[in-house]
Design goal:
By secondary structure, the chain is α/β, with parallel strands linked by helices. The radius of gyration is 17 Å and the shape is globular. The protein has a domain of 163 residues: P-loop containing nucleotide triphosphate hydrolases (Rossmann fold, 3-Layer(aba) Sandwich). The C terminus is likely disordered. The protein is built from 7 helices and 10 strands. The longest helix is centred in the last third of the chain and has 17 residues.
Length: 233
């Protein structure tokens, strides 16, 4: 069942085009990797799908509703409830502890402080970083920070997780550990994932790969893959 759709999406920054008529369907529970060279429009596509940016033309539909026509406030509410967003560098709030960072989306949505902290601790434990619950980001390793950011993105149990180069700032081993946990947790709760990456080994964790070139979907078939039996999906 398709529940996230882009149709003819166009976006430019000034006179520089970023997306040139992108059309994409994402099924419920699917993990889709969007790949392509730097500057091809991957992050812009993710930001439009997540409602962070509005496309200049075309449309974005979520469960049958045109979210690109919604107000900024409505799209922000969507990202606090149905959508989760995970960035390359985590973007944790430096002044808050790990538990406070993870609890933040729940607090913004009106959850009580005690309940939000309990949920945050549960997710930190699931991601193997319960020991840094009361530690601030500046005192954590890069891998710990990204696991905390992953917990924050998943704590609301979103229907869709948008991950923009989530392992790009990590070494190979740590990046694969973080991504393995992310994919496992997403599959456990049937979360749809749109994963932006330029690395084939990261794209191999997805069910399907979509390649962008110069702001458009590459239909040549290059770079498409099927999951390897016994390996990453």
């Amino acid at each position: 069942m398709t529940h996230l759709e882009a149709r003819g999406m166009v976006k430019a920054y000034g006179r520089t085009p970023a997306l040139r008529g992108v059309t994409l369907d994402v099924a419920e529970g699917e993990i889709v990797a969007v790949t392509g060279p730097s500057g091809c429009g991957k992050s812009t596509l993710l930001h439009c799908l997540a409602g962070i940016l509005r496309p200049d033309a075309g449309q974005v539909t979520w469960r049958g509703e045109r979210i690109d026509t919604w107000s900024e406030a409505a799209r922000s509410r969507l990202r606090r409830t149905e959508f989760g967003v995970l960035f390359q560098f985590g973007q944790l709030v430096a002044e808050l502890t790990a538990a406070e960072n993870v609890a933040l989306p729940l607090l913004l949505a009106g959850t009580g402080r005690r309940e939000a902290r309990a949920a945050a601790l549960t997710w930190l434990e699931r991601l193997g970083v319960a020991e840094v619950a009361d530690v601030r980001p500046g005192e954590m390793s890069g891998g710990q920070q990204q696991r905390c950011a992953t917990a924050r993105a998943l704590v609301t149990e979103p229907r869709v997780l948008f991950a923009d180069e989530p392992t790009g700032a990590l070494d190979t081993l740590t990046g694969e550990q973080v991504l393995t946990q992310l994919v496992r947790l997403a599959r456990d709760q049937h979360t749809t994932v749109v994963l932006i990456t330029h690395e084939p080994r990261i794209a191999a964790y997805a069910d399907r790969e979509v390649t962008l070139r110069d702001g458009a979907v590459d239909h040549s078939g290059l770079g498409l893959h099927a999951p390897v039996p016994g390996g990453p999906r």
